[in-house]
Amino acid sequence: MRTCLLPQSGGENLTDIVPAYVTDPTKAPARDLWFAEPAKVFDNLYFVGGKLHSAWALTTKEGIIVIDTIYPYNSEELIIGGMQKLGLDPKAIKYVLISHAHGDHIGGAEMLQTRYGARVVMGGPDWEWVEKYPNRYKTMAPKRDIVATDGMKIALGEITVTIWLTPGHTPGTMSYTFTVLDRGKPVNLAYSGGTAFNFVNNIPDPGIKNFQNYIDSQKHMAAKAAETKATVLLSNHSEFDNAVNKNRMLAGRGNGPHPYEIGTEWVQRYFQVMQGCARAAQLKLEQKAAGMGMP
Ligand SMILES: [Zn+2]
User: Which residues are close to ligand 1, an ion, with C-beta < 5 A?
Assistant: First the structure.
């Protein structure tokens, strides 16, 4: 729905303005709109996100890896509060992976780095945005730390998260593959780090090229999901992977299948839909370019 049907914006707004919810916290959306209960989802993976945006705590013998940090106004309650509710110690956070530098994912990164000394990992071009736009990232600007490269492994204790660069949604967007345990059984996950077409997408140049970049990234991540036999698709938006409803389904699971485990074929279909939506939008631009007599 969001990617294929709703009208797209014409591109990223990179003005250096402090977001309203930072200037005046009373302008942040009402708690009802974002609050979700935290949940233990796998033996070593805990959901600490909200109704629309994901944050996860991946536990290891040597500490915790946090994946995405939602907004400045709800990261304290959802991530720190959620971990405490689930019996996890936020002081054990060693790494924070930021799928991309938008306020709904980087919001708690500065806080986690300052308070717990966590190492922050992000794509190079997105680190550049954080440094270039101090107002836009006010209260959410971790100091430059680890610059992700394609295939980089973040290893902690017995767990390794592999980072895949998937530029498109932002120039530095990153996605991951890793393995968790479900009642002791290994389960392979693919985590998609960016979805919407919020690059310049309404004019042939550079829209056609931007869509190609996005399509290439979807193919890249689909290949990695296939290679690692991923049977779970996670998104950095809980509204896209249906995390909050699936968390509720866990309570009634009994001896049935894990609600997140959809199988390798359905994980591939996710990436096919993303590619198809992008290609359809790209075709419109190609037609527009042809109509204008461009090569
Ligand atoms: Zn985004």
Answer: 102
